[in-house]
């Protein structure tokens, strides 16, 4: 994969993975009202926008290692003023005293155990972490789901995710399956951009567009079987 081609395709997309503002609202319904939120791997800031809009007094800090995602997020969130901040930095090294650490689809890059262990010191007393992770909805998984996640080693069932959470010294408070519409809301802008980029695309970009279209076709083949699990966890 060409990193330049990947970011050319993903530049300007509203969000960088499946999810909706309803997922944010669900998490907020499960926890005490937070005063400080950290978004680890915030991308272009879609979920930060949902938090800041829903909680007009909350402070939100977002971290992402990709400079142009940080730029997009800063532009998107400038209307909220200084209570919403976006930093270019490694999400593994976040610090603070957050009531909620949120990470949509990004924990995978660190591993559940590493992420939870690293982030524990950034939690305020009674603070929680909410993260979404690829999940198999059946055991054994359907052939469609197994094929879709073939390049992502370690994907397991909800029970396996809960076990990994426990091994990091946390317990699972609540979970929510993210499937269907949340994925379509991610893919439609991505496929629209891919179509616009197709004309005149060089070899590296063409391969990236092919891969994205193949991924979308794999999801369309089984949209109810391909999912993320959103978990709210707290130190045990």
UniProtKB/TrEMBL annotation:
Note whether Transferase occurs among the keywords: yes
Which GO BP terms sit in this record? Answer: methylation
The superkingdom of the source organism is Bacteria
What keywords is this UniProt entry annotated with?
Methyltransferase, Transferase
A molecular function (GO) held by this record is: methyltransferase activity
Write down the InterPro entries for this protein, in alphabetical order.
Methyltransf_25, SAM-dependent_MTases_sf
Where does the Methyltransferase domain start and stop, copy by copy?
37-127
Q: What single Pfam family name could you report for this chain, choosing any that match? A: Methyltransf_25
Q: What is this protein called?
A: Class I SAM-dependent methyltransferase
Organism per entry: Albidovulum litorale
